[in-house]
Amino acid sequence: MRRSTASHEIQVSGIPIEIVRKDIKNLHPSVMPPNGRVRVSVPKHLNDDRVRAAVVTKLDWIRKRQRVMEAQPRQTQREMVEGESHYFMGKRYRLEVVERYGKHKIELKTGAKLQLFVSPDTTAANRRLVLNEWYREQLKAQIPLLLIKWEAIVKRHANDWGVKKMKTRWGSCNITQKRVWLNLELAKKPPECLEYVLVHELVHLHERYHNDRFKQLMTKFLPNWESSRKLLNQGPLGHDDWDC
Ligand SMILES: [Zn+2]
């Protein structure tokens, strides 16, 4: 979950490079899944020109990593057909498609069934849309209560919040506007993951950086945050390098 102003971007030989200044001794480049976005963690005292010079010497390595990532198989696109597995709040459901005319909707049934009601001629893309909108509604229905609970514990208030699709982060926090965004994909993860991301973003309203103070606050408010983070980063969508 990204701080709004702690990083910025430069271009080196046409490759966008995100620079993050940290309390570290050495420059550390990483090529991040799933798209090969490049991020370089750099010591605070190193200016952009010196970062650029250092990145130039690592371009071969960066390009190689990006090619490897491009060649990796992607999570297959769901066809939204009968029998497929779909996840909701960490549980696996079997998709049942009910074709009939009327309002498109989703219903959870006993026996871990997720029923999708659609018109007979609905495309896979449209079916995905119905499911995503349902995920969004479910997530949005849970957040207000979680916020009441955690704002009281963390003693910080978010002025605004929202849910959106994000490719490389689980959440983000605009510290000045006190606005929290949560990744739509959290609807698929166990409930403690949503809670962890929400607490993490609220803690940014105390501390901008992921430093020791930040970790101490996390441990104070949510002692098992590390196991929730681990859980979050398991599975095809998660990755340890993701902002969190
Ligand atoms: Zn964060």
What does this structure look like?
The model has no long low-confidence stretch (mean pLDDT 90). The protein is of the alpha/beta class and 244 residues long. The protein has helices at residues 48-56, 59-71, 124-154, 191-203, 212-221, 225-232; strands at 2-3, 7-12, 15-22, 28-32, 37-43, 85-88, 91-99, 105-109, 113-118, 160-164, 171-174, 179-183. It has two domains: 2-71, no CATH class; 85-232, Metalloproteases ("zincins"), catalytic domain (Zincin-like, 2-Layer Sandwich), CATH 3.30.2010. β11 (171-174) and β12 form a beta hairpin. It has six helices and twelve strands. The strands form three sheets. The chain has a four-stranded mixed sheet with strand order 1-11-12-10, with helices on one face. A four-stranded mixed sheet has the order 2-3-5-4. It has a four-stranded mixed sheet with strand order 6-7-9-8, covered by helices on one side.
Briefly say what this structure is.
With 244 residues, the chain is of the alpha/beta class.
- Rg, please? 20 Å
Q: CATH topology of the largest domain, anyone? A: Zincin-like
Q: Under the CATH scheme, which class of the largest domain?
A: Alpha Beta
Q: Spatial order of the strands in the main sheet?
A: 1-11-12-10
Mean pLDDT: 90
Q: What structural class is derived from the secondary structure elements? A: alpha/beta
Low-confidence stretches: none
Quickly give the CATH architecture of the largest domain: 2-Layer Sandwich
Number of strands: 12
